[in-house]
Specification:
By secondary structure, this protein is an alpha/beta fold. It has eight helices and seven strands.
Amino acid sequence: MTSALSYQQRRAAIEAYFDATAMDAWAKLTSDAPVGRIRATVRAGRDEMRATLLSWLPQDLRGKRVLDAGCGTGALAVEAARRGADVVAIDLSPNLVDIARARAPKDLGEGRIEFRSGDMLDPALGAFDYMVGMDSLIHYATEDAVRALEALAPRIQGSMVFTFAPRTPLLAAMHWVGGFFPRSDRSPAIVPTAPERLDAAIRASGALAGFAPQRTRRVASGFYISQALEVARA
């Protein structure tokens, strides 16, 4: 097992990347501004993945508390709030959180969003009915991703839905090609995970007793490849 230190080290690298190196590019990617062909495939893939994760949550979230772990520029948080949820949207990057706060519509109906910058594992955030982590665990090794789920589990009443980078030959090839991109276009290293290994690690975790993997779905759109997994209380 990797130590908690490896999670902290990766967290620092991710924060530096999204808060400085690629903030402008990320803000553009997550808007409706024109982008190049490659980034357009990534945008389309992210839109499809966001819709998938949201489809695994109840349509009516009134009275429910949702943690958007790694909220980025806030698109998922807004959709959850429009269903009536009380959303805590947190991201390591204060600059991305500022963009999310500025983009959030004033009228969210019965829902609300509290935007924060910080660690998604902070116990001070409290308890939730659902956790959503879209592409926030893809930079961590399997062991660290499971540790993150273990830290969250005692505070989640319903399900945790998140994404991971599935280990595939195509994804490996894309990482190799991506090494030739300008540094500002590269994210911190994505750590591919074998779906079977992740499933087994979750089922073997004593800290996740009472939770079990449920639905899964892979989204592949050009340079965007990510797999969604639902881990719910049995």
